[in-house]
Each structure stands twice: as C-alpha cells, then as structure tokens.
C-alpha cells in the first residue's frame, strides 16, 4: 500500500492509529509528503495526519524534539528560501503547521518537552522565513495552495502564544509583519487578514507597551512613495486592508484599546 492510500485509510478510520504501526517511524514517511506537489496528498492527507499524530501524543517526546529540529531546518522551513515560483515553497509553507502543533502540544503537556532555547530557535527560523520568503503565490494551478505568507502569519500567531518569548521577540515579530505588508506586491486579502490576526495574538500577551505599539503604527507612514503608480497603489492597498482588519480585531478584544487614540492608526485605514 503506498503512502497516499495509507493516509486515506487512516482518515477514513477517524484517525485511529493501527496498533501494529510505529508512529515514530510512520511520521518520517508522512513528513516527506509536506513537500509534494500533489495538493490532495499534501494538504488534505499528510498535513492533517501529521498534526493529528502530534496533537494526540502519538509521538515520543524525543521524536517530537527531533521532528521539530528537522522542520525548522533547511530541509523544510528554510528550504529554497528566497526562490520565486519554485516547488520548494510547498515544503516551507506546509511545515509551519506541524511546527505549530508541536509548540501547542508542548504548552499543553504537564512537563514541557521543549526548552526555552528550543523555542528561541523556532523563533529565529520563523523570523528568517517570514522576512526572506519571496514566493507570494496563492493558488498554483495543478498543485494547490502555496500561500506561504498566509501560513507564515498563522505560524507567527501560534508562536506568539509561547511564554518563552519576551517583549523583545514580540517586537521583532511586529516589525517582520510590517515589512511584509509594506511591499510593492498586492497581497491576497485573506493573507493580509491573517497578518492582522497575528498582531492581535501578539498584543494579547500584554507585553507590548502603548508607546511601542503607537510607534510601530506610525512607522508604517515612513514608507515613502516610489513614484511608480502601481507599486504605490499596492502599498496603499496592503496597508489599508491590514489596518481595517486589525481595527476590527482590536475592537473585539477591547473597545477601549489604546491604538484608537492614535492619529496614525486612523490615517492608515
């Protein structure tokens, strides 16, 4: 039975793992499919199965740690980073969710299996990934969704929850998100919305001061027009969509949330 058929049977069986199958061995087979150009195998099968194995505690602690190190390396998250319109984007984009699943599992178990240093290493890789990702494609014909920046936004939102990260790391995250918004390529609306969701999760930690956030908002205005009409329109679109989305999220969090006193915030909407 090939991998795809194994995964189909696994999903049909409500993710009940066969007793005679070693999850620590099987996950190594499944992770390779995260790089596949077969959208059905990659998105609907391998991704869901590998995250389910992690969430349900089917992997040993050592295996989780080993898997994490592999996923944040140049074999997956950083593989081909900087390339555009290259199939390596799938491995990068779809490794973000198993990494997030391991981080979530680590926060839920009584004895954390990851050290603060492990989390900082994930943070370093995540920032590099978001900053240097150049492949901005959404849906790719015959191969399915790439959506690397959207997945990166979800990744940062998950990572922001970890108590190992301090004010310093959260501010770096905010700057990485700003730089991804302030580009001359129009981002997909859903991607911009997910980047605003990541900011919302960062602010929920309540480690970013009012001044830090206000200064960050104002810094969006420092991006000068290039003189190229289309590029400047894309920048304006990204910023406006981002702050409209962020405004709605922050109003839900707290009607009196401090950004609404900021003239820059209103100017950017």
Given the C-alpha coordinates, what overall shape results?
globular
Instruction: Write the H/E string, N to C.
Output: HHHHHHEEHHHHHH
**What does the main sheet amount to?**
2 strands, antiparallel
Regions with pLDDT < 50 over 5+ consecutive residues? none
Classify the helix fraction into a percent range.
55-70%
Gyration radius, in Å = 20 Å
Count of the domains? 2
How many beta-strand elements? 2
Q: How many H/I helices? A: 12
The rounded distance between the terminal residues' Cα atoms is: 54 Å
Structural category is: mainly alpha
Strand proportion, as a percent range, falls in: under 5%
Q: Describe the strand arrangement of the main beta sheet, using strand numbers.
A: 1-2
**Mean of all residue-level pLDDT scores:** 90
Protein described:
The protein is mainly α and 269 residues long. Helix content is 64%, strand content 1%. The protein has two domains: 1-130 and 138-165; 173-269. The protein contains twelve helices and two strands; from the N terminus they run H-H-H-H-H-H-E-E-H-H-H-H-H-H. It has a two-stranded antiparallel sheet. Strand 1 and strand 2 (144-145) form a beta hairpin. Helix 2 (23-32) runs antiparallel to helix 3 (39-55). The chain is globular. The model has no long low-confidence stretch (mean pLDDT 90).
């Amino acid at each position: 039975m090939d991998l795809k058929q194994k995964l189909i049977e696994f999903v049909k069986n409500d993710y009940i793992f066969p007793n005679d199958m070693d999850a620590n061995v099987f996950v190594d087979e499944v992770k390779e499919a995260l790089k596949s150009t077969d959208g059905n195998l990659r998105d609907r099968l391998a991704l869901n199965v590998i995250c389910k194995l992690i969430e349900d505690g089917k992997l040993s602690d050592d295996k989780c740690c080993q898997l994490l190190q592999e996923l944040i390396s140049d074999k997956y998250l950083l593989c081909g980073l900087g390339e555009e319109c290259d199939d390596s984007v799938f491995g990068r984009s779809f490794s973000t969710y198993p990494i997030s699943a391991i981080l979530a599992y680590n926060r839920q178990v009584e004895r954390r299996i990851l050290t603060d240093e492990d989390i900082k290493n994930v943070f370093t890789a995540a920032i590099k990934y978001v900053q240097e990702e150049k492949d901005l494609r959404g849906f790719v014909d015959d191969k399915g969704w790439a959506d690397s920046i959207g997945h990166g936004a979800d990744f940062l939102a998950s990572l922001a929850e970890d108590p190992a990260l301090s004010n310093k790391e959260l501010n770096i995250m905010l700057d990485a998100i700003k730089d991804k918004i302030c580009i001359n390529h129009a981002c997909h609306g859903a991607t911009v919305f997910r980047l605003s969701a990541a900011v919302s999760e960062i602010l929920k930690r309540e480690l970013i001061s009012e001044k830090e956030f206000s200064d960050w908002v104002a810094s969006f205005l420092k991006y000068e027009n290039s003189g190229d009409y289309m590029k400047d329109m894309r920048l304006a679109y990204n910023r406006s969509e981002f702050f409209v989305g962020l405004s709605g999220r922050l109003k839900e969090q707290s009607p009196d949330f401090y950004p609404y006193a900021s003239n820059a915030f209103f100017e950017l909407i």
